Amino acid sequence: MSDEQKPTTEHEETGLHIPIWVALAALAVALILAGIIMSNVLGTLVDLVFPEAVDVPLPSGAVEIDHIEDSKTADEEWLYGVDEDACRVSWFYQEAGASCNFMPTMCDVGEDNIPYLIMDEPAAMVARCTGEKPAEVSGYSYEVLVSTGSADYQTYFRVYVYKER
Questions:
Q1: How many beta carbons lie within 10 A of that of residue 78, not counting itself?
Q2: Can you give the pTM of this predicted structure?
Q3: Which range marks the domain in which residue 133 is found?
Q4: Which of 112, 117, 142, 116 is nearest to 128 (CA)?
Q5: 106-146 tens-digit pLDDT
Q6: CA distances from 11 to 46, 72, 92 (A)
Q7: How many domains does the structure of the chain reveal?
Q8: Residue 75: inside a domain, yes or no?
Q9: Chain-centre distance of CA 95, in angstroms?
Q10: Are residues 130 and 85 in the same domain?
Q11: Window from 78-87, 89-98, 99-108 with minimum mean pLDDT
Q12: Taking a C-beta distance cutoff of 8 angstroms, is the pair 133, 108 a contact?
């Protein structure tokens, strides 16, 4: 036999040998890091794939009169009518977490601490309320303009939704 054709044994090692416990420890660290990264990104990914529907609170008895998607004013716009005092509708939004600015001399507060309309002019602006629904990706803010009604409904209110991008 020549020197170039030496017999090899089964136990002869070739290359780098890593102990199994080191490989398992590295795998565990990689899984922990992947879990931390996914916990930070998962909410955003879910919002992108399944965006949350717009859910602006509505007082009971509200009737949708008109709905405009991609209006010139907002991303979405609704007009509602309701047979309820305009000041009470505004108060409803304030209780739902919105910030409301009442027009002067339109509302007064009764003994039950609920506002009521004191000046009943047709189609008069009563309040402007703004609120928001924050989210990772698909959050939105909304604006509600409440006005006195006419013959059909006691109060009209227009809801504008501005989606965050």
A1: 22
A2: 0.67
A3: 63-163
A4: 142
A5: 888 877 777 778 776 778 899 999 999 887 667 889 999 99
A6: 52, 78, 82
A7: 2
A8: yes
A9: 18
A10: yes
A11: 99-108
A12: no
